[in-house]
Amino acid sequence: MGADPTTDGRDPRSGSPVAPETDESAFFVVGIGASAGGLEAVSALLRRVTYDGAAFIVVQHLAPNQTSMLTELLGRASRLAVETIEDGVLIQRNHVYVCPPNAVLCLEGNLIRLLAPGGNRPEMPIDAFFRSLAENRGLKAMGVVMSGTGTDGTFGLAAIKAAGGITFVQEPTSAKFDGMPRSARDSGAADFCLAPEAIADEILRVSSHPYLQPA
Q1: What are the angstrom distances between the C-alpha of 30 and each of 53, 105, 142, 152?
Q2: Beta carbons of 187 and 159 less than 8 angstroms apart
Q3: Model confidence over 80-94: pLDDT tens digits?
Q4: Which residues of 96-106 are buried (b: 16+ CB within 10 A; e: fewer)?
Q5: Which of 116, 121, 195, 211 could bond to 174 as cystine, CB 3.0-4.6 Å?
Q6: Structure confidence by residue, pLDDT tens digits, 12-44
Q7: Average pLDDT over residues 111-118
């Protein structure tokens, strides 16, 4: 598991003290949706990410009763803290949050909530989370659709774009399974269509831009 760069209350780059987060909309939250072939793509993206001040939330299609090693595997790839989401967890900068199997996510303020399985659970968990992300973070939302089959993520990415957020799609030729990224790209919902490493570079560039940071 990656080390937590903020537990001592200091900025990991400068070593200066960091004030407690008081504005829940002050930093970017990056939603990453993937399915088949997504481990390789998400790992490549996170391997490239440094301490940029954003938070990352990963939603990958998993079998309901599957024992997932996703958190551990992404923790090996990322320099950020990586943890499996529990209901009510507080979003923090420079953390990666991984959705557990058989769960659907939504945001309430600066908390991640897990919707109970069954009942009226959405069939498209990436779309559902992206819509919640768009409503919750607006201009400070980013959405990324990566390798996978089907169309999950396409409509959610459009919601993020409509809310003023920034949207990314993995370039289909770089994806192990191109159904999801191709659907999102062809819908016109993507601001950028790039390989995973280039998506990471663009996220870092945008989230560290002084004009996009809170005063």
Answers
A1: 11, 14, 5, 17
A2: no
A3: 999 999 999 999 999
A4: bbbbbbbbbbb
A5: 195
A6: 444 433 334 445 558 999 999 999 999 999 999
A7: 82
Burial 73-95 (b: 16+ CB within 10 A, else e): ebbebbbbbbbebeeebebbbbb
* Rounded Cα gap, residues 74 and 43, in angstroms: 6
First CA to last CA distance, the chain: 32
SS3 for 102-166 is: CCEEEEECCEEEEECCCCCCCCCHHHHHHHHHHHHHHHHEEEEECCCCCCCCHHHHHHHHHCCCE
Q: What pLDDT sits at residue 119?
A: 57
Structure tokens at 156: 């959610």
**Across residues 146-171, what is the average pLDDT?**
97
Q: What does the pLDDT average to over 107-123?
A: 78
In b/e form, how buried is each residue of 127-159, taking b as 16+ CB within 10 angstroms?
bbbbbbbbebbeebbbbbbbbbeebbbbbbbbb
Report the SS3 class of residue 9.
coil
* CA 54/CA 120 separation, integer angstroms: 31
- The structure tokens listed for 21 are 């987060």
Residue range 60-78: average pLDDT?
Answer: 85
Catalytic residues: 35, 61, 152
